[in-house]
Amino acid sequence: MNFFKNYFCSIIILLLVNNNVFASFRRSKKYGGVTDYADLWCDYLGQVERFKVELPLTAETYFEIRYEALVADPAGQMRHVLEFLDEEWEDAVGHFAGKADEHDLVQGLTGHSSTTLVQIGQPLNHDRVGLGQKELTDAEMILAREVVAAHGLEKLFAKFEAGGTIPP
Q1: What are the DSSP calls for 2-53, one per residue?
Q2: In this structure, how many other beta carbons lie within 10 angstroms of the beta carbon of residue 125?
């Protein structure tokens, strides 16, 4: 953490979050199951929670946007992002039509594709909203909540399940 404090003293974090992460993990077939998915979720978002406290992140240095909100209102959400970044509005920012060439570029550089990478080549749409709830059974969600609780992040997980965000 001292590395960030020393070298990135004016760090700004813009985080796009969604509750489809479990569905993405499952579809990738890279991870063993719900316990692994929940552990990874805790690793990623647990670090963000840690950053919020230790850096510390404030409303001026941390902005969280929900994927679901971005899909529902791309122009409105991108206006909030640009306001946070103190940038001027451009109409092109409010519409994402997908860029197949970016998918191909990243796949060429990394040597593999992913469910997220595939989305880069497609227009922003509602198809992926709610995948987390659709892909996992009730029993799997119970297991995920247990794993998350063991990491001490149950309040954060409940907030994500409810579709909310947690401010810095």
Answers
A1: HHHHHH-TT--EEEEE-TTHHHHHHHHT-S-SHHHHHHHHHHHHHHHHHHHH
A2: 11
DSSP codes, 118-141: HHHTS---GGGTTHHHHHS-HHHH
CB 168 within 8 A of CB 56: yes
Among residues 48, 65, 69, 60, the alpha carbon closest in space to that of 156 is found at 48
Q: Is 78 helix (H, G, I), strand (E, B) or coil?
A: helix
Q: What angle do CA 66, 67, 71 make, to 5 degrees?
A: 120
**Contact indicator for 115, 27 with CB cutoff of 8 Å:** yes
pLDDT in tens, 61-110: 889 888 888 888 999 999 999 999 999 999 988 888 777 777 777 778 87
